[in-house]
Amino acid sequence: MRRNLAIVLTIIGLAFAGTVSAESITVIMPRHEMDLIGIWEKQTREFEAKTGIKVEFIQMSWDEVATKVTTDLTTGIKSSYDVIEFDNGWVSKFASANWLEPLDKYASKAYLDSLLPGLVQTFSQKGKPLGIVWNNDTRFFFYNKAMLAKANIKSPPKTWTEVLQQSKALQAAGISKFPVAEYWNQEWALANSAAFYLYSFGNSYFDDQNRITINKPGSVEALQFMYDMLKKNKIANPSSVTLSQEAAADLFYSGSSAFFFQGPASTYSYANDKTKSKVVGQVEVANDLPASAAGKQATLTLPEAFAIPRTSVNKDAAWKYIQFMISPEKDKERALKIGSLPLFKSLYADPQLLKLYPYWAQFAKQSAVAKPLPLVDWYDELVNTTIADLQQMFLGMKTPQAAADDIAAFLDGKLVDGKPLKK
């Protein structure tokens, strides 16, 4: 009896020990804007099956992830997460706070060299990579060519004046009640949209000399144009002030809107997926982006990376996950399945991808004028200020000039590259 009891206890002990010793990691990332088929979840489970490493895989909205990640890192104790979202707007802040594990001891030079160099540089500080990009999120201008043709419009707009003219023509012909649907809900995406409009008017929050420009004529003109699209000219859907990016995209796919100025690369794929779109065969990628004048075209590049917190206790397993997910094989699978832009240089010469996505030629032209968000430690504070002031502007509580003045007041006294901003 004693011998049998000892055997049972030994078996239980071994089972318990196996449970404890099994590797596991927690991954937190935003839902990819156009991953409607759950490919990131699918590939994560493939990683589990191949390595035996268990993954608690958390996907939420970008804003929810941002709150959880920054709150967790601020505590300075053992991290709740082993692989985290690392946004391009956080690079300076996270590096200054020393929150991340440098990846140079994990990532070989050959591996880093195989990725697009701009994406590696974006998430590096002092020559050390702090993150490996998972989302090559450059934005592009898409339009509904069928809707334009019905209104006898031969080519998409190249200026904001032409956007207004073509929108009015589409409305007059009864083709689209609101040709524009923007994602201006009170969240980070609104600040991204504001940056795009500022750039397209040849301006920004501040210039290269660290002088505040957000409340100067060119920038105020950009904010005024945003307001007028919604309130005066009424070419933007009134629900834009509550729309997320996904909701604005859905209006484009349903044939409600004709223009999508800042769509992710995968917009084209989903617009031509008959299970998700009513505009199959109608959408094109423009050669140029609308701007206030020639030479001021710009688009946003908003890449996102994976990073490993310094306080993670599972760094080796976390790196295995990153290297598995950010590999040419998995990157190509995502490009084929959801149309996401590749992260690896070699895939832009892949015959299968080029045959499937001939419009990448237009992407290349628009990418040539891509600009990042302001790279400052306090960008999250700037975002919160901007979206609050712009929402008040849309609600008629502030004029565009007043909203710009309030953002300028926030900027006054802040630092850019260690130097005080000048008025």
Structure description:
The protein is an alpha/beta fold. It is built from 18 helices and 14 strands. The protein has two domains: 2-137 and 302-371, D-Maltodextrin-Binding Protein, domain 2, CATH 3.40.190.10; 140-300 and 376-420, D-Maltodextrin-Binding Protein, domain 2, CATH 3.40.190. The protein has a five-stranded mixed beta sheet, sandwiched between helices. A hairpin with a 2-residue loop joins strand 13 and strand 14. Helix 17 (379-394) packs antiparallel against helix 18. Mean pLDDT is 91; it is low at 1-21.
Rg, please?
24 Å
**CATH architecture title of the largest domain:** 3-Layer(aba) Sandwich
> Beta-strand percentage?
5-15%
Helix tally equals: 18
Helix/strand-derived category reads: alpha/beta
Give the distance, in angstroms, between the N- and C-terminal Cα atoms: 87 Å
Which tags fit this structure?
14 strands, D-Maltodextrin-Binding Protein, domain 2, 12% strand, 5-stranded mixed beta sheet, 2 domains, 423 residues, alpha/beta
In terms of topology, how is this protein built?
Blueprint: H1 2-21, E1 24-30, H2 39-51, E2 54-60, H3 62-75, E3 83-87, H4 91-97, H5 109-114, H6 117-122, E4 124-125, E5 128-129, E6 132-135, E7 140-144, H7 145-150, H8 160-172, H9 188-200, H10 217-230, H11 245-253, E8 259-263, H12 267-271, E9 283-285, E10 299-300, E11 304-307, H13 315-325, H14 328-338, H15 351-356, H16 360-367, E12 370-371, H17 379-394, H18 400-411, E13 415-416, E14 419-420
Helix pairs in contact: 9-10, 9-17, 17-18
